[in-house]
Design brief:
2 copies of one chain form a homodimer. By secondary structure, chain A is α/β, with parallel strands linked by helices. Chain A has 2 domains: about 140 residues, Response regulator (Rossmann fold), CATH 3.40.50; about 130 residues, 3-Layer(aba) Sandwich (Rossmann fold). Chain A is built from 13 helices and 12 strands. In chain A, the strands form 2 sheets. Chain A has a 6-stranded parallel sheet, with helices on both faces. In chain A, strands 7-6-8-9-10-12 form a 6-stranded mixed sheet, with helices on both faces. The N and C termini of chain A lie far apart (about 55 Å). The mean pLDDT of chain A is about 90. Chains A and B meet through helix 4, helix 5, strand 2, helix 6 and helix 10 of A and helix 4, helix 5, strand 2, helix 6 and helix 10 of B. The structure holds a DNA duplex (16 and 16 nucleotides).
Chain lengths: ~350, ~350
DNA sequence: CTGAAAGCGCTAACAA
DNA sequence: TTGTTAGCGCTTTCAG
């Protein structure tokens, strides 16, 4: 019910402009083929009628949909992992500029079993609902990427193909090591010396990449790193506990803690509060992601911010190449994040105190 | 390039099963029409071929897409307004269960002008890209809802039609007054008496609704409300400043502050930290939204949590009715949020201390 | 219960 | 430069 009034079709426009349907189609898709006079007449008819090509018909005819599938991964409760939010916003805009829209991939629902992401991708693929996917699961070492590749589905990844040297797909990633290096250098420049690393899993490649930035900066400054590595599951609780242990038992208390995520960084903040220590004054703390929480938690958590707008436009650029007429070699793009300094490393900073 | 192998069509299945194409179509859409034996034979062919109906063809034929448009509103930097994130996740699932997918509405891009949300809706509508919309702009008194209604576009709103008594669309909303009432009662039960209200705009209806919950609880307990209302723009900075003024100049310092949003609540936390006061011990603080930041900011911000999973499923239910064969009256559903108690009102609570 | 025919609106190929 | 023809894959009549 309440459907909008009958939408005008190509034939309506053609009738009004006194041309054939094909000419209208050309006016829309290949305007350069028309004589100027004809084009403006057709254009006028299009405007008057408010004509917009019917997507279903176009999709059926061309075999494309100008839709890109993305699996939305919500922020887990109790974490600061809110990068998806900013990424989606950026991607919607970048895709729009290229004439694409985003369709959210819903996990497959095999009755009462656990949700199955691959079934979600598979359904969309089989029903030719999307032209391609943007996948963000590479951070998690999940099988989606490999599955899509083997399925020969077009996709671009946000995240390097860590485990797969033979990967033949395009990707865009953020240089975590460079970001953490800058963060560590910032702490060193402020006079910190005993700077710990707090990661979530020593064996995870993303974690290890980020940690390498800390190591590089420490070594470059001639500072030791031995015995200064801690890790905790990527939850505030676990990080609070791990940070507490570091703060309490170390023979020398840390000057500062560089964390692999904002969630971990906020855990450190908790541990400091519990001990009556002040972040930024007594101990410097740095996170990674520039999450909403990092921005607003007192006294502000200094954090490494990925240029997600650039990530989105690079991804869309790769998508266009991938879906374009000529075959292209896959590309990999590494973008450099920037450090956002707040109260947790610089008490004079942050707008709130 | 790299397109998946040619997808099987209805004709392929028909040939394999030794029936006509329509019979396969019936097997998919009206299985009850087929004899059991035929059905299972067709079903076997479908499974063997991995057949899934082509969406474009189906869309063209039926005039529907089983796609729902949603405009994604990202968390503004520097705020805790992360409800969209949880809502999207819930909506993707609820829609999937009803056979729908979400398509994100991109703001219109009129060259270099400011983004135009209505153009985004209009494009999708004109090109018959979606069957309906879910709109969340009602909180903001924005014109999208009215525009869609006047355009006779099918949609369901998250948020009451505050300004439009004559609205003829279905909506689902959260009872902010009830949530804030519960929060205020919780503070009163814990012995607080001088409880301030901090909103973002006295004239905003959502703000006023939530404030009314505070008033109700205060009056019911025989506590005064006069002179205990403050307001600040919905940013941490503004809230910090406003809360500071309240804390410094009041003849009696507040026992507690009930806030219309988590962003405001976190501003209060900042003001407390700056004055060496402890949230939950010296002053109780309550927010609204149960954002990621509320969950993890020390010492945990007690907050009113909307049942977004229920909101999503009610919205999808309304959508199904709206798009169903028979005309239906619009419905309005009001859901009750629940209070999540954390350290900012109960020092013994929260997992982090 | 199953099969034949028509056509949704569009664009690619070709003809004029 | 413009018009004609065909058909993408599906579902909806309507016969059988």
């Amino acid at each position: 019910m309440a459907t909008a009034p009958q939408a005008p079709t190509l034939a309506d426009v053609a009738r009004r402009a006194g041309v054939s349907r094909q000419t209208v189609s050309n006016a829309v898709n290949n305007p350069s083929l028309l004589r100027e006079e004809t084009l403006s007449r057709v254009q006028a008819a299009i405007d008057e009628l408010g004509y917009v090509p019917n997507r279903a018909a176009r999709n059926l005819r061309t075999g494309t949909t100008r839709l890109v599938g993305l699996r939305y991964i919500a922020t887990p409760d109790g974490t600061a992992n809110t990068a998806m939010d900013r990424f989606v916003k950026a991607l919607v805009g970048a895709a729009r500029d290229a004439g694409y829209h985003l369709m959210l991939v819903a996990d497959g629902d095999d009755g009462s079993e656990t949700p199955d992401p691959i079934k979600g991708y598979d359904d969309l693929l089989r029903s030719t609902a999307v032209d391609a996917f943007v996948v963000t699961e590479t951070f998690l070492d999940q099988p989606q990427t490999a599955w899509l590749a083997q399925r020969r589905a077009p996709f671009v990844a946000f995240g390097r193909p860590w485990g797969e040297p033979e990967a033949r797909h395009s990707w865009v990633d953020v240089d975590g090591a460079a970001g953490v290096r800058a963060a560590t250098e910032h702490l060193i420049a402020r006079g910190h010396q005993r700077i710990w690393w707090l990661g979530w899993s020593p064996s995870n490649r993303v974690d290890a990449d980020r940690r390498s930035g800390w190591e590089q900066a420490m070594h470059a400054a001639g500072l030791p790193t031995d015995g200064l590595v801690a890790s905790a599951a990527d939850t505030v609780e676990a990080a609070t506990e791990a940070a507490g242990a570091v703060l309490d038992t170390a023979d020398h208390r840390p000057d500062a803690v560089v964390c692999a995520t904002d969630t971990l960084g906020i855990g450190v903040l908790h541990a400091l509060v519990a001990r009556g220590l002040r972040a930024g004054t007594d101990v410097g703390v740095v996170g990674f992601d520039d999450s909403s929480a990092a921005q607003i938690v007192p006294p502000g958590l200094t954090s490494v911010r990925a240029p997600l707008e650039d990530v989105a436009s690079e991804i869309v650029a790769a998508l266009r190449r991938l879906l374009g007429p000529e075959p292209v070699e896959p590309t990999g793009v590494l973008l450099t994040p920037r450090l956002v300094v707040r109260g947790s490393t610089d008490p004079s900073d942050g707008p709130f105190l």
